[in-house]
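Lab manual, section 2.4: Encoding a predicted structure.

Procedure: take the sequence of the chain (490 residues), apply the prediction step described in section 2.3, and record the output as structure tokens. A sample record is shown.
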Amino acid sequence: MPQTTLIRNADWIVAWNQQTGRHEYSQGADVAFSDGRIDFVGKDWRGEAERVIEGKGLAVLPGLVNLHCHPALEPFFRGIREDHGVPEMHMTGLYERGQAFRPDVEDMAAAAEVAYCELLLSGTTSVCDQMWPWPGWFDLIARSGLRGFVAPGFASARWKMTARHRLEYSWDESKGRRDFAAALDLLDEAGRHPSGRLSGVVFPLQIDTCTEELLRDVVAVAEERDLPVTTHASQSVIEFQEMVRRHGLSPVQWAHRIGILGRRMTLGHAIFLDSHSWLHHWTRDDIGIMAETGTSVAHCPSPFARYGHALEDFGRYVEAGINMGVGTDVAPHNLIEEMRLAIVLARVAGGDIRAAGPATLLHAATVGGADALLRPDLGRLAAGACADLVLVDLNHPLMRPARDPVRTLIWSGADRAVRDVFIDGEQVVADRTVVHLDHGAALDRLTEAQARMVRDVPARDYLGRQAEEVVPLSLPRAGSNTGGGRDERI
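Recorded output:
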């Protein structure tokens, strides 16, 4: 007989209204769950409960769904990525950094454990974990307690730089095919994992690094196996220009032409559409195409805002009918802070305070992500949904006064106010402490691994530079006349 947990008389509950298709507040109500599922959301639960959590001073939210994330990679770039950009690449530093700073596969477990802790502590319960395979991946994410949508990546080509103003491609289509087959085997393995919390996403890495034939086969396999698909698309000016050079079409238009868009497909980023002001392109079709095909977008504002890029704008995509989700894509892996930044950038880009707000971003970070992953049982507090819940401490100084807890969480409290997290009914964060992982030990291992990565930069950088030449320190070293200390336009 499964045990029942009752959260009794919570001050606020963010409950799902199936009839209206939206979250709504319920006050002084109960949530009961057992056997990994929610049994009851509402007033006066009458059943028995083996564990009772008093809800006074708490808000109960659905677990957040991180739709785009690279946990085993991005923590390596702390202190490296935040201010790194290449003006000749329209400010993006992605291609230069990806070639020069490349961690060893054996070190990725340390980065992933750090990221999983950050995700849990900020209320993420489901994560689309996009990475090339590394040893121990599935066992670690299962041990964390996260609901993992694992996405092993593959591609027909890799990016290559030999000059600051030019992106090149190193093609190996046979390797792409082998890696695709290996990825499908891994997805089968994930589905068989004894945790029961792992499932797969088909992940061709980037739209510009995969052949048409590979992408068509990806969608066919996803249909056959009933799997979601994701890829990076329209993430840079360079990529947009490359796809127009190859095909005379924007990335979204080309994806539509070859038949890979649809309800299974999530486009990572989709910032540089044909209507973006930086591009001055001759069409304005991309937003309509994505809406008509039911394609989702994983919006990750932080990495692009650091370059000076912004999606134009979140509210316009939503109004067009595009299903929007939210991801972190960078460290720190704090989805609540991404929600806040998404609101700010939407208002700036749209010139309108109504462009986005807390309700819109909460929907994207829960229901939007769940629907993109083809999981209508996630991201909602309703009977029958998965018991993935976040308990927010309304007595935290940054949550007081708690007149509107969702608004205050996004604008003020963020991860600092997250007290407890349950996934599949199991407590994985208890009083702001991750239950199953060792955050501090993982950070120690990551620090050593980053030092090794930085040491090896000259062997990988196309100019043979030291790490501090590629990414100078923010301040100069004492007694040095070079490096750091300036944020100059070049």
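Check your result against the sample. The chain has a mean pLDDT of 96.
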